Amino acid sequence: MVVKTFMDMDQDSEDEKQQYLPLALHLASEFFLRNPNKDVRLLVACCLADIFRIYAPEAPYTSHDKLKDIFLFITRQLKGLEDTKSPQFNRYFYLLENLAWVKSYNICFELEDCNEIFIQLFRTLFSVINNSHNQKVQMHMLDLMSSIIMEGDGVTQELLDSILINLIPAHKNLNKQAFDLAKVLLKRTVQTIEPCIANFFNQVLVLGKSSVSDLSEHVFDLIQELFAIDPHLLLSVMPQLEFKLKSNDGEERLAVVRLLAKLFGSKDSDLATQNRPLWQCFLGRFNDIHVPVRLESVKFASHCLMNHPDLAKDLTEYLKVRSHDPEEAIRHDVIVTIITAGKRDLSLVNDQLLGFVRERTLDKRWRVRKEAMMGLAQLYKKYCLHAEAGKDAAEKVSWIKDKLLHIYYQNSIDDKLLVEKIFAQYLVPHNLETEERMKCLYYLYASLDPNAVKALNEMWKCQNMLRSHVRELLDLHKQPTSEANSAAMFGKLMTIAKNLPDPGKAQDFVKKFNQVLGDDEKLRSQLELLISPTCSCKQADVCVREIARKLANPKQPTNPFLEMVKFLLERIAPVHIDSEAISALVKLMNKSIEGTADDEEEGVSPDTAIRAGLELLKVLSFTHPTSFHSAETYESLLQCLRMEDDKVAEAAIQIFRNTGHKIETDLPQIRSTLIPILHQKAKRGTPHQAKQAVHCIHAIFSNKEVQLAQIFEPLSRSLNADVPEQLITPLVSLGHISMLAPDQFASPMKSVVANFIVKDLLMNDRSTGEKNGKLWSPDEEVSPEVLAKVQAIKLLVRWLLGMKNNQSKSANSTLRLLSAMLVSEGDLTEQKRISKSDMSRLRLAAGSAIMKLAQEPCYHEIITPEQFQLCALVINDECYQVRQIFAQKLHKALVKLLLPLEYMAIFALCAKDPVKERRAHARQCLLKNISIRREYIKQNPMANEKLLSLLPEYVVPYMIHLLAHDPDFTKPQDVDQLRDVKECLWFMLEVLMTKNENNSHAFMKKMAENIKLTRDAQSPDEPKANEKLYTVCDVALCVINSKSALCNADSPKDPVLPTKFFTQPEKDFCNDRNYISEETRVLLLTGKPKPTGVLGTVNKPLSATGRRPYIRTTGSETGSNISVNSELSSSAGNRSREQSSDISETGVSENDENPVRIISVTPAKTEPVKNKEINSDQATQGNSTERGKKRPATASGTENIHQKPEEKNVDETGPSLAAKTRRGRPPKPEPQGATAKNEETSKPPVRGRKRAAVSQESPGSLEAGNAKAPKQQDTAKKPAAAQRQIDLQR
Fold first, then answer.
1. Closest to 203 in 3D by CA, of 194, 193, 213
2. Which phi-psi region, left, alpha or beta, contains residue 1279 (left: φ > 0; alpha: ψ -120 to 50)?
3. Pure H helices in 809-856
4. Residue 668 in contact with residue 710, Cβ under 8 Å?
5. Which of 142, 316, 369, 1014 could in theory staple to 1062 by disulfide, Cβ–Cβ 3.0 to 4.6 A?
């Protein structure tokens, strides 16, 4: 009744207020406040709340202590709000509503310790709030608390803690409603509470007073939550965070970075634009010295790119730096960041960001490379294959397919396997239906760049090779057990293991797999089906799953053995190509021919699609020939043969050649149609078509002799040198016919060779070449007569290669002819009617022909040392393209082990090449060749019997002999010439001495010492020749001794010297003389600078009319990706090959005759390095003072340029120079009145043809070289051209 009375009373009833005052005072007595009955306490609290309402604004209680007790009592009663199902809940709600409406707690502001009451109230309300409360309860609580905050003098730290504690993640998860209540409360009171919050964070963050609050350790969590609630709550806090970002404590910086990453990266945050100084300071943490800080910064970038694309520009530069971070994990996360954003939306990542991922595909760490490759593959599949974002997005990432396939060129087997996996899953998904899969492959192949096409072809070739290895292994299982069989099986297993990841472990797994194959016949049959030519893609899938199921072990969740076998099966399984697939490809090509395909929609022209389709089928005809055998396929190919496109017809012929072995028996209709077409192509097609037609007839027809005779006879009778443009195809056909069927055509060909090829064609110049001074012309500008002569030289070689014997001495005559061609610089008749570019073509053809004949043992034996040296000097030809093509041919033959080891010595001469790219290419060729030979010796135990022809170290005597006969080496005591010899020696020895395998350093030293005990077999009785040989030996010994401390050990075996180049050592002959003085030795090793300055060598007079000199580039060997360090090698600064300077554009065409050439040198640039890392010391130490000099350099595209003979010499005080003489033959008279000028002071005598001039600085030398001293030889009578007539019938 008392409660009802007070509830009904209002503030205006003064009489009642006075009447009930004693009751009001009585209700505040200890009896009621401490009453044990809960309901009584609740009713008393309701009465007291009404009393405060009625007597407001003054309370009837004057004692501060009594007021405190009353409010603490009321606060305790509010705990009853927790149970909404309680019968008394409505009274508790009334109590809360009354207090909130009247703002009764504001009375407490007058109390000294009011903070205790407020803290208790806040804690109570936050503890009782739960999800069963309705919105009214929450609103009254908010009203009650916000009035205390907003109308008080300030918020104490303890009261602030009672609010903020609900934002901490642990509490937030326990009571979500309390978090929401605190969140709304802070939003409502933001203006009032912000200074209190700022003070709290200032105390903790700036002053470091963690004791001010129990929440000090949660400051960063609180900042995050407060920012999400209302950024205005932290207006004064953000500058404090900038201060913390610069803390000396790495862990503290990490915590701040984590916090700011969330603040900047959250979806609706505009903090980066509102607070630019803080944003810039945060970006600076991308370069933090502390690895975890950089890692956290990079992880943030992904969310930022996705939520704030406008900040991508700011992030790009920092991600660029981090993509080269020394830490693998950071480089990895940069890729993850960019790819994650790209997969969300390609527009979020710009081309520069994708470029960073592209770079990392060549990272030194496999984990980083893999992430980059897989990320790009996923982007390609999403945007190109599935076209999820339209054509623009597909165009943006169209480069990915090429880049991924380029990685197949890397040496790592892991890279190759990943490319194969990516191709099968992302570029051309193997799980697509056949038609869709082949359409994908067809247009992919048509849109790839040439290098990617080569890589894809190589991938199929490698897979096919591995299939053949497995097939051979299964064949060995069918043979009876024997020691030879076991040895062959072991070799085959080692070969297979090399094609799997981690070959060391793979060997054990492959052996285990081999044992399983031997024991399980069913497994063997499954594997045989998998690699059989008739296996379809669906069958392959079944076989792989079946074999994996048999080898799986349920008790072993991670089975490395099974993983290795899966790698093997994935490589050999034909998951893309079978007969059905080839048929689908042919149909696609037919649609392109008919014009009904979607070529334009796929971004390729119909002509490109047809040509690429034929090339694709041609490649597949090598790897899957059986899949082509159908009338429908061959009919389509016949249709291609009739097309006007020469490349298409050529590819079609080659497909017939590779796949048509059963045409004659199974498809007579195709045979009868094909024969006349092949005949026509062999007689009147392009040279390439003629070659393929002859080989096709030889490969697929049983009566090939008759067929070839029908081509040979009319062609041989109709040869006419007066119409050279009609000669090229017949010469190609005749050459290949004589090579393929020597027994039938060798004899009739001999008269053709003697009477027509040599006398009528090669020894006559019917037309006059264009005298434009160019050293090289494009193929289409070469005169038909020269093209015919080049084919004539090739015909001679093919004819000899077919005979494979020298009984008629035809090979000797041919070699003399080729040598004469080289000596005469390509102008065999010496009538000066032939142009310089045509002479270059003929020199290249002659040098390549000698090299081709050397691949046949019977002809290699008769090639004299002089002829070998002439051939070798082609690699120093004055024409860049001649050097380039010759080096490529040389490498190709050496790497297949077709050429004798002595030909590898030719690469030593590349040290003189004026173009750094050529030197870098030669070094790569040497590395590859040496690696292949050493690997071959390891894998083939029988190879030990042929060490003289295989062991790379045995190239040293050949190299020494070759350099002793180098026409540039005329004065054994000339320091400049010795320096050149030393650089050539070191060019080869540096690669050989990378490792001291089997004490090879001592072995090479022993070889050089042994050579000094012999004589030069080429001219044993000539003192000067032997002196030059011994001098080169001493230079070699000097280099070996200076570069290796291990060369003084005993040689493992006594080296054998080639008798073709060195005589047998005489018993009493002792040669302990030093052929180079101590002073010269020091000069060679220390590289004392030459006296002439660089600028003084720019405009020296030419030593031959119209000849432009070559200036050696001082650029680094950036073409080489492999660093070779030998023992006790000089510092990186000691090799000029490691310097880098680029030449600017000269503004003239490469082969112009009279350019006005302005050479300017730009500052040094360094090409991107595969594993380039920022924040790591990459500077090369020990640079000599000479390295800083700028030098004129010749770029590869500008070196074949002749200067004007009228050009005046800038250096008027320079010495006058003698005219240059030619190597090995009398000089030609100079045109009267011509003033020869050259950048070098002289050139050595030329033998065979003009050499590319040696630069002022040879590779690897320490000094800036000046021009060589003039040399002059006595002139002799020029032999008449008639004396060069060669009779091949002798």
1. 213
2. beta
3. 810-823, 836-853
4. no
5. 1014
**pLDDT score, position 263:** 83
Alpha carbon distance 652, 668 (integer Å): 18
DSSP alpha helix (H) spans, 537-629: 537-551, 560-572, 579-594, 606-623
How many Cβ atoms are within 10 Å of 1254's Cβ, its own excluded? 27
In the block, tokens 């080898």 appear at: 551
Distance CA 1167, CA 1118 (A): 6
Contact (Cβ atoms closer than 8 angstroms) between residue 963 and residue 1016: no
Q: Are 1063 and 958 in contact (CB under 8 A)?
A: no
144, 96 Cβ separation under 8 angstroms: yes
CA dist., res. 830 & res. 815, Å (int): 19
Q: Which residues on neighbouring strands pair with residue 285, listed in sequence order? A: none
* Dihedral pair phi/psi, residue 1247, rounded to 5°: -120, 115
Q: 1264, 1218, 1265, 1266: which is closest to 1245 by C-alpha?
A: 1218
Query: Would you call 191 exposed, middle or buried from its count of C-beta atoms within 10 A (0-12, 13-18, 19+)?
Result: exposed
User: CB neighbours (10 Å) of residue 487?
Assistant: 12
Q: Which residues contact 644 (CB under 8 A, 6 or more apart)?
A: none
Burial class (CB in 10 A: 0-12, 13-18, 19+), 434: middle
- pLDDT (0 to 100) of residue 380: 93
- State the DSSP code for 203: I
As a residue count, the chain comes to: 1290
Q: How many CA atoms lie within 13 A of 1117 on its CB side?
A: 24
pLDDT of residue 1170: 39
d(CA 1051, CA 1006): 7
CA atoms of 469 and 514, how far apart (whole Å): 13
Peptide bond into 195 cis (omega under 30): no
pLDDT score recorded for residue 1223: 37
Q: Which residues contact 1009 (CB under 8 A, 6 or more apart)?
A: 1033, 1037
Report which residue type is found at 1053: K
Q: What single DSSP character describes residue 1220?
A: P
**C-alpha to C-alpha distance for 1286 and 1290, rounded to whole angstroms:** 9
DSSP states of 753-802: IIIIIIIIIIT---SPPP-S--S---GGGS-HHHHHHHHHHHHHHHHHHH
Q: What are the C-alpha distances in Å from 1164 to residues 320, 419, 468? A: 22, 35, 49
What pLDDT, on the 0 to 100 scale, is given for residue 1139?
Answer: 39
Those residues of the chain that have pLDDT short of 70 are: 1-29, 31-33, 54-60, 62, 208, 211, 941, 943-945, 1044-1053, 1087-1290
| Phi/psi at 1027 (5° precision) | -60, -45
In terms of Cβ atoms closer than 10 Å to its own Cβ (0-12, 13-18, 19+), residue 917 is middle
pLDDT value of residue 5: 54
Q: Which amino acid is at 1038?
A: C
Q: Which of the 8 DSSP states describes residue 1016?
A: B
The answer, as to whether pTM is greater than 0.85, is no
| Other residues' Cβ atoms within 10 Å of the Cβ of residue 232 | 12
Residue pair 1118/1167 in contact (Cβ under 8 Å)? The answer is yes
pLDDT tens-digit readout, 865-900: 999 999 999 999 999 999 999 999 999 999 999 999
Gyration radius from the chain CA atoms: 44
Tell me the DSSP string of 109-170: GGSTTHHHHHHHHHHHHHHH--TTS-HHHHHHHHHHHHHHHHHSS---HHHHHHHHGGGSHH
Q: What are the tokens at 1223?
A: 């190597």
Angle, helices 450-478 vs 521-531, to 10°: value is 150
On whether the CB atoms of residues 992 and 1045 are closer than 8 A, the answer is: no
- In angstroms, the CA 337 to CA 217 distance is 30
Question: By CB neighbour count within 10 A (0-12 exposed, 13-18 middle, 19+ buried), where does 763 fall?
Answer: middle
